[in-house]
Every structure is written in C-alpha cells, then in structure tokens.
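User: Before I run my own analysis I want an independent prediction to cross-check against. Here's the chain; please return only the structure tokens and, at the end, one sentence I can use as a sanity check.
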Amino acid sequence: MNRSLPIFFLSLFFCACTEKGEKLVELDLKGKKRVYEELLNPDKVRVSGNNLYVLESPSMDAMDSPIHVIDSRNNSYLKSFGTIGFGPGEISDASSIEFGSNDSSFYIYSSIDKKISEFSFLNTDLAIHQVKQKGDFFKAYSVLRSGDSTFLGLTVDSPSRLVEFSASGDSLSGFGDLENFSERTDLDYFNLSQMNMGWFAGNFSKTHFVIANLFSNKIEIFDRDKLTFDRFYLSPKEYMKFDLIAESSGYSVHWDLSSPYHFRDVVVTEDRIFALYGGISEAKIQTESDIAKTVYVFSFAGEIIAKYSLDRSVKSIAVNKDLSKIYGISTDPDPGIVEFELPIIK
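Assistant: Structure tokens:
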C-alpha cells in the first residue's frame, strides 16, 4: 500500500562550459513522492532490475524488518527481509547492499557486527551465508565485494586508501593513499582515515570503485583493471573545518559543526558516477531537516557531465538501469521515496 503525492515534472535546461570547453547540462528536477507505511525510518535506497531496495536506519527497533523491496513498475510494496540480532543468519543492521549476477540473491553489509550476509528471495528471515570480518579485515568499516572471495574496504588505520582482503581476514593489497588535504602536519593514519571518510560504491561489473567524501568536496575513483587511483575536487576545493582533541585512546578529529558537509551518497553505473551533494552544515540540518538537494554526474575520467538540482532534500539516491530515473529518500517528517525523471544525456 502506498500514498502517492503527485507533483508534475518540470525541467529547465541550462548549459555551461567545463574546463575542457564541453557542455555541462544543468537541470532542475521536481519529484513525485510516495509514502509506504512499511517504511519506518528509511536510510538508503538502491535499484536492481525492476526493484527498489530500501534499508532502514540502524536506530530502528529490533522487532522491525531492516530491508524492504518495492516494485518500481507499479510502485507496490513486495516484501521485507532480515531479522535483527547477532545469531546465525541474523544481522545487526543493514548498512549497505550490493547485488551479484544472480537476481535471486543480494548481499548486506552490517557495520555494527562486521559481517557480510547473503540473502535469498526464497528465505526472507535469515541470511543463507555469512562472512564475519576477522584479522586485519576487522579494521575495515565500509566493505564491498571485489571477487567471489575477496573484498575491498575503507579502513580506520592504514596508509592505503583502499585495502583488499581475503574472506579469511588477510590483507592482500593496498591501493592509493590517504590524502592530507589540510595544512596540519601532526596527523596519523587514524586521523587521516577520519578526515577521508565517505560513501563507498562500485559498479556491477566491479571495474570501478568510487569514494565520495563527506568532509571534503572530493571524488576518488579506483580503476580495478588498470589499478589506477585518481582524485578530483569540485571547484573551489573545500573541506570541513576541524581540530584535534586528546582522548584516552589518542588524538581524534573533531569537526566544526557549523561547517558544511559535502557528499552524502554515491551510485556507480557501468560508465557514470552519480554523487549526491549536500553543502549543508549539521547545525542547519538539525533546524531545517535539509541534507542534500544536488546530484552531480561524473565520468570515470572525473569530468562533470551534469548537475541536477532537486526540488526537495533527500539523503540517499539510486538510479535505474537505463538512467531514466533517480530515486531518493526524502528527509521531511514523513519520509518516503521520491522519483525524479531524467532526460537522456549522451
């Protein structure tokens, strides 16, 4: 069951020139919001095939389902998945989701108890297979599958930007480095990992992995085939103000909450990057509930292809396979799924 709040789609095209003289499409989008009574505190949305997958916030009640599936063709609620807990087949939370070659299963990463869980459409309550992070792998806080039995992760204490792990917990390879984009020289690897936290995503074929940074306006692109690692900033380069505070475990980065956050989510298709940008401070989020209203589209070369301005704030985005729609989770008091129609951009 859903309640549809129809809003007519309106688009205004503008063209600007990039640094290389190419046309940049700028577009205002108006969305159509649908509210589902089954969604309690939705936090993330992703698309696979005709289905929308919605993940609940980790702060949800343990008795409620953490994963929901909606049919995007008719906007009907299909089913829920997952049982909150720490037993076999249970998950502590649904931090992120990714999809394999088999449409009948998907993978959930749980950041609280450090576990990757495979779910089948035939079993909605419990995962059919789980991998628990251990050894060096335990230090990874955001994880994606890079192969059948290997994983790429962002870690809390490593000189490498990305680290590849085996399922048994061994570190296999490191890629890129943790950038110190500030002027401070007293930062250790833990501090640098705090500064460079962001949203981590890869495309379906696992050729490209992208990090959209929360505390700076930086996009980082890892080409898995070429083993190259590139970073690009919006212009002008910006980062959130911070200071180092002594704690019992050592010095830790503390952010100035009057400074704006930057990227709030990222989705990677086979040839493009869709990055949700905020530019809004925590102080303003708490008073106005707006999180992000801009989506940038990048090529894998780091060039900006398009800039979409949304008519309402969302906190997560998804893009369908033919790139004709963006879906977002609204940040108003009655959160729902917002659908934005996209033009064809070649």
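Sanity check: The CA atoms of residues 50 and 73 lie 7 Å apart.
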